């Protein structure tokens, strides 16, 4: 089984976590890089989205991932926060699509279950497990970066299997 490189995105307008991980399903992964793309909450929305898009495009070009994993936006009580998160997620999906990369979205509980074994884990538990799974000397900070790394791990472990299954189905249909 060959290693896969995945760029994980924990979307946010003010802080967007990005993590790049390499690995194969069921085996320990390796952290390639992580960062947080920030923007000024008082800046114009269009400028903030453009800033995010440019930074994601640069990171995709730099790290050459095979796929992108983005956290699926879920309903929160604060509509303004949901809107910003959804807009940031859409920019991430668009940046990946523009680069010709497949994109998979995961709910927070799917990611938590993949890295901790529990879909109810808190941020501290996710950060602790990401640190262990990637054999890091220190926890990735801030939590947005740890969440992005967790998304990438989740995709390698779960999405890789899904992608191979989908490809096998496409191949089988093509032979009919």
From TrEMBL:
<comment type="subunit">
    <text>Homodimer which binds Holliday junction (HJ) DNA. The HJ becomes 2-fold symmetrical on binding to RuvC with unstacked arms; it has a different conformation from HJ DNA in complex with RuvA. In the full resolvosome a probable DNA-RuvA(4)-RuvB(12)-RuvC(2) complex forms which resolves the HJ.</text>
</comment>
<dbReference type="InterPro" id="IPR002176">
    <property type="entry name" value="X-over_junc_endoDNase_RuvC"/>
</dbReference>
<protein>
    <recommendedName>
        <fullName>Crossover junction endodeoxyribonuclease RuvC</fullName>
        <ecNumber>3.1.21.10</ecNumber>
    </recommendedName>
</protein>
<dbReference type="GO" id="GO:0003677">
    <property type="term" value="F:DNA binding"/>
</dbReference>
<feature type="binding site">
    <location>
        <position position="144"/>
    </location>
    <ligand>
        <name>Mg(2+) 1</name>
    </ligand>
</feature>
<keyword id="KW-0238">DNA-binding</keyword>
<keyword id="KW-0378">Hydrolase</keyword>
<feature type="active site">
    <location>
        <position position="10"/>
    </location>
</feature>
<dbReference type="InterPro" id="IPR036397">
    <property type="entry name" value="RNaseH_sf"/>
</dbReference>
<dbReference type="GO" id="GO:0048476">
    <property type="term" value="C:Holliday junction resolvase complex"/>
</dbReference>
<keyword id="KW-0460">Magnesium</keyword>
<dbReference type="GO" id="GO:0006281">
    <property type="term" value="P:DNA repair"/>
</dbReference>
<dbReference type="GO" id="GO:0008821">
    <property type="term" value="F:crossover junction DNA endonuclease activity"/>
</dbReference>
<feature type="active site">
    <location>
        <position position="144"/>
    </location>
</feature>
<feature type="active site">
    <location>
        <position position="71"/>
    </location>
</feature>
<dbReference type="InterPro" id="IPR020563">
    <property type="entry name" value="X-over_junc_endoDNase_Mg_BS"/>
</dbReference>
<keyword id="KW-0963">Cytoplasm</keyword>
<dbReference type="GO" id="GO:0005737">
    <property type="term" value="C:cytoplasm"/>
</dbReference>
<keyword id="KW-0233">DNA recombination</keyword>
<dbReference type="GO" id="GO:0000287">
    <property type="term" value="F:magnesium ion binding"/>
</dbReference>
<feature type="binding site">
    <location>
        <position position="10"/>
    </location>
    <ligand>
        <name>Mg(2+) 1</name>
    </ligand>
</feature>
<comment type="function">
    <text>The RuvA-RuvB-RuvC complex processes Holliday junction (HJ) DNA during genetic recombination and DNA repair. Endonuclease that resolves HJ intermediates. Cleaves cruciform DNA by making single-stranded nicks across the HJ at symmetrical positions within the homologous arms, yielding a 5'-phosphate and a 3'-hydroxyl group; requires a central core of homology in the junction. The consensus cleavage sequence is 5'-(A/T)TT(C/G)-3'. Cleavage occurs on the 3'-side of the TT dinucleotide at the point of strand exchange.</text>
</comment>
<dbReference type="Pfam" id="PF02075">
    <property type="entry name" value="RuvC"/>
</dbReference>
<keyword id="KW-0479">Metal-binding</keyword>
<keyword id="KW-0227">DNA damage</keyword>
<keyword id="KW-0234">DNA repair</keyword>
<dbReference type="GO" id="GO:0006310">
    <property type="term" value="P:DNA recombination"/>
</dbReference>
<comment type="similarity">
    <text>Belongs to the RuvC family.</text>
</comment>
<keyword id="KW-0255">Endonuclease</keyword>
<dbReference type="InterPro" id="IPR012337">
    <property type="entry name" value="RNaseH-like_sf"/>
</dbReference>
<feature type="binding site">
    <location>
        <position position="71"/>
    </location>
    <ligand>
        <name>Mg(2+) 2</name>
    </ligand>
</feature>
<keyword id="KW-0540">Nuclease</keyword>
